[in-house]
Specification:
Layout lengths: L1 H7 L1 H16 L8 H20 L7 H10 L2 H9 L1 H14 L3 H9 L3 H11 L4 H8 L14 H17 L11 H9 L6 H11 L2
Helix pairs in contact: 1-2, 2-4, 3-4, 3-10, 3-12, 4-9, 4-10, 5-6, 5-8, 6-7, 8-9, 9-10, 10-12
Length: 204
């Protein structure tokens, strides 16, 4: 245990322990397919791996990884406490071939991002992580300096979703116009190929 603390730091150990407890607490309703919940957790781990590999500042690397690991915890809350609404948003997103946060915003007036950030704020997760979680679908709502925690979580989530959908042997999918506009506003559009390579290497 002392070796783990010296390598990771007590604050990171504490946040990872809290993350483990959060995943344990939100048990999805039986109406939600287990495959959906497994996918959420797998995506969380992949997003955290990518976020950890991105060139974020050393001082915020650990908290960025924690934010990435927990960024979709609001989805597990919805699957646990509001399964009908959660399934309706997923079904509508599949019909429209759009992202589920868009249908959540339409049906609920908010999305899993804001819900998760609110809950984790009550649980004592650091504000830097809360900000990253709350805005991981709308990164341009707040000002940024370089590749900070919020931007890194947004980029890692985007790339993790892309990797999940990549056909064998391809190197990247066309991003949506919204994501293209976000990356351009953030000054990162030209870095997308570099970030894609980092994502591929981090998830080997």
């Amino acid at each position: 245990m002392s070796n783990a603390v010296s390598c990771l730091g007590m604050e990171t150990i504490k946040n990872l322990a809290l993350a483990s407890e959060v995943f344990r607490v939100f048990v999805p309703d039986a109406r939600v397919p287990q495959s959906v919940c497994d996918s959420i957790q797998h995506h969380a781990v992949r997003t955290a791996a990518i976020a950890s590999a991105l060139p974020v500042e050393r001082e915020t690397r650990d908290i960025t990884a924690v934010a990435a690991l927990l960024h979709d915890i609001g989805s597990l809350f919805l699957a646990s406490s509001m399964p009908d609404e959660f399934c309706a948003a997923l079904s509508l997103a599949a019909q429209r071939r759009c992202k589920s946060f868009e249908t959540e915003e339409e049906l609920l007036g908010t999305s899993h991002a804001e819900i998760g950030a609110y809950l984790l704020g009550l649980w004592g997760i650091p504000n830097l992580a809360i900000e990253g979680i709350a805005h991981h679908h709308h990164p341009t709502r707040i000002p940024h300096t370089a590749l900070d925690c919020s931007v890194a979580v947004y980029v890692a989530d985007l790339l993790a979703n892309e990797l999940r959908e990549l056909p064998e042997g391809t190197t990247g999918l066309d991003i949506t116009e919204t994501d293209r506009a976000n990356l351009e506003t953030l000054g990162l559009l030209d870095k997308l190929p570099e970030f894609r390579e980092i994502a591929l290497q981090s998830c080997d």
